[in-house]
Specification:
Structural class: alpha/beta
CATH topology: Rossmann fold
Helix content: 25-40%
CATH superfamily: Vaccinia Virus protein VP39
Number of helices: 13
CATH architecture: 3-Layer(aba) Sandwich
Order of helices and strands: HHHEEHEHEHHHHEEHHHHEE
Length: 242
């Protein structure tokens, strides 16, 4: 299932839990440098679009486009693999069927490329985040055959910059509740994150039961006690900047 088809299926309540996190937005906007025109590929409902620049959005899901707020940037129905723009027209990669092709397209149409992604290695996202490590091993299967962070960076000549996740992150993406584990028991929270739909209901229900039991018994707190004093966590999220 493509990213557009996936969000046409699960995206009806996306805006309930997904909002712009200002600290991450500031890091993304700083990475844009002095670019005045911005192409937001895989734009969703418009989070992280800088308000002080000329933004054009690209989003394949009609349901997500329909939830963009009044006054949001104009949005084109297209995919990352075939951007309908001329070369150098402009100064969510984990859902693209061919991430390397999508990045080459971004490099073709833009003078500067900024990609928000994650390090899928055991040393990165898979190993550092307790939810994937301890409750959802199926996530590793979703990543089989996907390009590594190094391969993604190499295709556009990018450097990788860590993106810490604040403990009170306002945007309810998959890693956002790393210090608020009870949130993952909430159906609305899970419906706003594509990972749960992709692993399937059996894995989701097993993970929720396991987490619920571990929270009740104190096992989660014991296992993750080092996290409880942190204001932000390094969970393998990265900006690629080229």
């Amino acid at each position: 299932m493509s990213g557009g088809q996936l969000y046409d299926t699960i995206g009806a309540t996306y805006t309930v839990t997904r909002r712009t996190e200002p600290r991450i937005a500031a890091q993304v906007w700083a990475a844009l440098g002095d670019a005045r025109t911005v192409l937001n590929v895989g734009a969703g409902t418009g989070s992280y679009e800088p308000p002080d620049r000329d933004v054009t959005a690209v989003e394949p899901s009609a349901l997500m486009r329909a939830q963009r707020p009044a006054g949001a940037a104009p949005c084109v129905a297209a995919t990352a693999q075939s951007l309908p723009f001329k070369d150098q027209s402009f100064a969510t990669v984990h859902h693209w069927p061919d991430p390397l092709a999508g990045l080459r397209e971004m490099r073709r149409v833009a003078r500067r490329v900024v990609v928000f992604t994650h390090d899928d290695s055991e040393a990165g996202w898979l190993g550092r985040f307790w939810l994937t490590r301890d409750y959802l091993p199926e996530v590793a299967g979703l990543l089989a055959g996907r390009p590594s962070l190094g391969e993604l960076a190499a295709v556009i000549g990018a450097r990788a910059e860590p993106v810490p996740v604040p403990w009170d992150c306002a945007d309810g993406f998959f890693e956002a509740y790393w210090r608020r584990p009870q949130a993952y028991l909430d159906d609305d929270v899970r419906r706003g994150v594509s990972v749960w739909a992709r692993v399937g209901p059996r894995a989701e229900q097993r993970a929720v039961r396991g987490l619920c039991d571990d929270l009740a018994s104190g096992r989660w707190a014991e296992r993750n006690r080092d996290l409880l004093a942190l204001d932000a966590a390094e969970l393998g999220l990265r900006l690629l900047i080229a």
